[in-house]
């Protein structure tokens, strides 16, 4: 499955890997692949060797979401296999393993740091975009979704759902944002109110300021929403004229910032190339950030010159509080008020280093106000800065640094599962989970 964003550091990877790496066994690897029995459809139609042709590049870029990683590393990338059948996957795994080739699996390619299509050791991309069936079983409330399906395709399939309201409101006020922290995780489960601080143009030319937008999605009618908000966050002054009632499917277009009236069939479009350079980081907040902290964060955002910059605050609480932290690998449950996503995007490759550095500064500004020991992070907003291994190896010590941030107390069990099913650590990336038995 995938959504809409992703990321990594191209210049760095190229310079590190250029001299040392040669592609071992490419002939053997391709030979092994081509001779693999694939009765349903020929695997040869799925193999695109990394030859810098227009055809190859279009496949590479189709599921590359971040312009930071838009140039393939021809020193290490051998091929893309666009599997159409399970036998193609088996062939790619077996032939890669037997020829010492690393594998990177790409489903949507939204990985923020590009780990599904980048490596500094010889590798092949196993691309799953052709495997995209979706089966929805409404009575059992279950859906089976193949990895190559897009969220838009999934939303379209499950669109038999209720009415929705959306609300956007610009407010300058720090007071409203402060108050939001106290109430947003305690609203009814049918209501989600997200706060977004964004760098915006001021009233005078060249002036930059922070605007706070509140987005709400409510499973119910506008009048009921207005009454709930009037009780919980009257500072917003929400009126029913601010709200739009629409189907749940149409509300997914709203979250993509598409104008009202955009036909929902756009959800079935597939991507073709990356659109911008971007970088994200995340934090979890367990006690309200004081007003002076909010001001420091805003000033940190204003320092990121000339970029799109925003900070999303996603409320927790609700059903998140009712699932035990140990029930699934995802550990961030009860006790979190909200999750922060810091985001910046730019269009000029020359701005990459400066933008990455400024994001690190902003992250330092936030440190006193967010979770600590570990400073928790959201895996989906993958951030290579919080700890990483080289492409070709996974050490337990390093993995415990990033792993404890992403998985908190569940890391140890995940390492045991990894040891059981991939004891040789064949499937790896810079932030993968090591097999527990690697521990010395
Ligand atoms: C524009 C945009 C918007 C986003 N919005 C949100 C959001 O609203 N909420 C949110 O939570 N996240 C969001 N994300 C983050 C997104 O959820 C994660 O990046 C997620 O990992 C994307 O899945 P993917 O299949 O596209 O990623 P990929 O890049 O294909 O894969 C991610 C990782 O999983 C591995 N992998 C992929 N497929 C398989 C497989 N079949 N088997 C084993 N390993 C596999 C890859 O090798 C890689 O390490 C957004 C990302 C983007 C780019
Ligand atoms: C790929 O092809 C382009 C255009 O033909 C060329 O400019 C570029 O140098 C090539 N890159 C590599 C790594 O060979
Ligand atoms: C194999 O792939 C082809 C082409 O996508 C598809 O028509 C067929 O159903 C697939 N078979 C299996 C068993 O998945
Ligand atoms: C802000 O102003 C700059 C010029 O100073 C302009 O290029 C940009 O489009 C403006 N942004 C918005 C969101 O209006
Ligand atoms: C909000 O509540 C107050 C008092 O509880 C009431 O006077 C006011 O009319 C309400 N406003 C809306 C928009 O419902
Ligand atoms: C959904 O959006 C389409 C396109 O704007 C519109 O025609 C339709 O009436 C909307 N449906 C609902 C229930 O909001
Ligand atoms: C800001 O970004 C735009 C678009 O990338 C670029 O054209 C412009 O030169 C940049 N300005 C500065 C001051 O960096
Ligand atoms: C980026 O920097 C290079 C080298 O300094 C320069 O040649 C190029 O014009 C710059 N690009 C932009 C868009 O500013
Ligand atoms: C997608 C959509 O319907 N967005 C609307 C949400 O509500 C605001 C304010 O009422 C509208 O301006 C948006 O167009």
TrEMBL record:
Subcellular location: Secreted, Cell wall
Major place of residence: secreted
Family annotation (InterPro entries): BBE, FAD-bd_PCMH, FAD-bd_PCMH-like_sf, FAD-bd_PCMH_sub1, Oxid_FAD_bind_N
Keywords assigned: Cell wall, FAD, Flavoprotein, Glycoprotein, Nucleotide-binding, Oxidoreductase, Secreted, Signal
Cofactor requirements of the protein: FAD
Domain FAD-binding PCMH-type, residue spans: 73-271
Recorded superkingdom: Eukaryota
Signal peptide annotation: 1-19
Alphabetical list of SUPFAM superfamilies matching this protein: FAD-binding/transporter-associated domain-like (SSF56176)
Keyword Translocase: no
One Pfam family from the record: BBE
Residue ranges of the TM segments: none
Family: Belongs to the oxygen-dependent FAD-linked oxidoreductase family.
Name of protein: FAD-binding PCMH-type domain-containing protein
Source organism (scientific name): Brassica rapa subsp. trilocularis
